[in-house]
């Protein structure tokens, strides 16, 4: 009798625990309401004990147990391959067709289209407008970010022009006889070899290399030391110019549009590239409008 009583008590506890967990699964939800700072609190009472679950909202999508069962149903696959009906109905073809959870995941992985879609949906929630209207607002943000980005990449333009000039100019300064003689007369003043020793461009290069080698070698060593110093700055947590300019531009965009989520705007400004993703995105938006 004692054994039977003990088994009945344990069986009753097992049923109570199973009911509790099944109830939690039915009411489980992924609460991500983009752009709000609200919190969802779900309480479960079991033997006068309550459990509170709080989460910051980014997107608002609630999944029920029936939906989960439908997603994993065996009818969607045949012999380990998806069926045509399943792919036709549920295969997303554009970022706008994807669920909020997938957009968040792809944006976290740095997929630019998902980052843009995340900003658009944040605008929809904050401004309470439809998708097409949100894209118009996003286009304003994109243009402003592009304007700010031009000033931040100006040092890169100067560096590119300088390196191109030096690299191309070094060729005639080493191998072209007239240029080498002019440079020697103005800045070096070394004795000019006999004309018979300057018949070929290789002979000219062997003469000019006597003063070009120290300059080029020192510049190469200087660049190597600067690169090593930059890596040490990164190891110590100091931000090189690229990261500094991205953070500065993100702060400027957040200041101009404080109503939208700061993290989402930061992700967008960091993902945009001046000569590729930003302009490609503009062309896609114009195509959609037309």
Order of H and E elements: HEEEEHEEHHHHHHHHHH
Order of strands across the biggest sheet?
A: 1-4
Please, what is the average pLDDT?
A: 76
Q: What proportion strand?
A: 5-15%
Query: End-to-end distance, in Å?
Result: 81 Å
Helix-strand makeup class = mainly alpha
Radius of gyration over all CA atoms, rounded: 33 Å
Molecular shape: elongated
The number of strands is 6
Low-confidence regions = 10-33, 35-63, 277-290
User: Share of helix among residues?
Assistant: 55-70%
* Number of contiguous helices: 12
Describe the sheet with the most strands: 2 strands, antiparallel
Task: Give a quick precis of the structure.
With 290 residues, the chain is mainly α.
Describe what you observe in this structure:
- The protein has 290 residues and is mostly helical.
- The chain is built from 12 helices and 6 strands.
- Helices cover 67% and strands 7% of the residues.
- Strands 1-4 form a two-stranded antiparallel sheet. It has a two-stranded antiparallel sheet with strand order 2-3.
- Helix 6 (131-152) crosses helix 10 (241-256) and helix 8 crosses helix 9 (201-235).
- The longest helix is centred in the C-terminal third of the chain and has 35 residues, at 201-235.
Helix and strand layout, with pairings?
Blueprint: H1 2-26, E1 30-33, E2 42-46, E3 49-53, E4 59-61, H2 65-71, E5 77-78, E6 81-82, H3 84-90, H4 100-108, H5 112-127, H6 131-152, H7 154-175, H8 177-188, H9 201-235, H10 241-256, H11 262-271, H12 277-289
Helix pairs in contact: 4-5, 5-6, 5-11, 6-10, 7-8, 8-9, 10-11
């Amino acid at each position: 009798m004692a054994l039977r009583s003990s088994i009945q008590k344990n069986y009753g506890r097992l049923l109570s625990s199973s009911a509790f967990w099944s109830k939690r699964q039915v009411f489980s939800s992924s609460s991500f309401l983009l752009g709000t700072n609200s919190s969802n609190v779900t309480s479960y009472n079991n033997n006068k004990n309550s459990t509170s679950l709080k989460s910051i909202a980014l997107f608002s999508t609630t999944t029920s147990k029936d939906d989960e069962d439908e997603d994993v149903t065996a009818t969607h696959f045949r012999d380990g391959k998806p069926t045509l009906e399943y792919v036709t109905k549920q295969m997303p073809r554009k970022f706008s067709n994807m669920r909020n959870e997938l957009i968040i995941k792809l944006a976290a992985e740095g997929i630019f289209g998902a980052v843009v879609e995340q900003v658009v949906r944040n605008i929809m929630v904050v401004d309470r407008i439809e998708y097409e209207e949100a894209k118009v607002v996003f286009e304003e943000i994109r243009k402003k970010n592009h304007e700010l980005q031009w000033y931040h990449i100006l040092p890169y333009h100067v560096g590119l022009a300088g390196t191109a000039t030096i690299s191309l100019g070094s060729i005639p300064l080493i191998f072209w006889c007239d240029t080498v003689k002019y440079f020697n007369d103005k800045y070096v003043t070394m004795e000019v070899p006999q004309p018979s020793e300057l018949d070929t461009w290789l002979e000219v290069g062997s003469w000019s290399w006597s003063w070009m080698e120290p300059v080029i070698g020192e510049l190469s060593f200087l660049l190597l030391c600067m690169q090593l110093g930059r890596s040490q700055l990164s190891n110590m947590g100091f931000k090189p110019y690229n990261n500094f300019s991205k953070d500065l531009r993100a702060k400027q965009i957040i200041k101009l549009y404080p109503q939208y989520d700061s993290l989402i705007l930061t992700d967008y400004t960091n993902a945009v590239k001046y000569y590729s993703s930003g302009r490609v995105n503009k062309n896609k938006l114009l195509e959609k409008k037309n």
